[in-house]
Amino acid sequence: MGDHVGMGELVTTLVGGAVILIGTGAAIYFYQRSLDKPGGREGLGATGDMFGVLTEIFNPGQARARDALKELEHSGPVTPTPEDDDRPVRLVTNPDGTPRAVRIRKAR
């Protein structure tokens, strides 16, 4: 009779595990489907910022690189200097001084 009780617990554990596994799979499936609907991704940026702190703690090099890329992305255009060659047609030469190519600058 003791064997039947142990077998019942095993069956209950397996059925419970299967229900949890199927329920988790269904939740993930329906969550992914909801992201495809219009407005389904609104508010996800706040979650990313919340977990972004973990990256700064456990991988500070990657966090610095991400900040540097953001800074480059938001930087303005480089201002031309008087030394810049702004001629519309320029002759490019080889190291020995012989002509190699002609470069024509596009109109801005």
General shape: elongated
Strand order of the largest sheet: 1-2
Reported for the largest beta sheet, the result is: 2 strands, antiparallel
Give me the count of strands: 2
Report strand %: 5-15%
- The average pLDDT is 81
For the termini, the CA-CA separation is 91 Å
In N-to-C order, the SSE pattern is HHHEE
Derived structural class: mainly alpha
Features:
2 strands; mainly alpha; 108 residues; two-stranded antiparallel ribbon
Task: Give your account of this protein's structure.
The structure is a single chain. This protein is mainly alpha-helical and 108 residues long. The chain contains 3 helices and 2 strands; from the N terminus they run αααββ. The protein has a two-stranded antiparallel ribbon with strand order 1-2. A hairpin with a 5-residue loop joins β1 and β2. The mean pLDDT is 81.
Topology:
Layout: H1 2-35, H2 44-58, H3 60-74, E1 89-93, E2 99-104
Antiparallel strand pairs: 1-2
Question: What would a concise description of this structure say?
Answer:
The chain is mainly alpha-helical and 108 residues long. It has three helices and two strands, in the order αααββ.
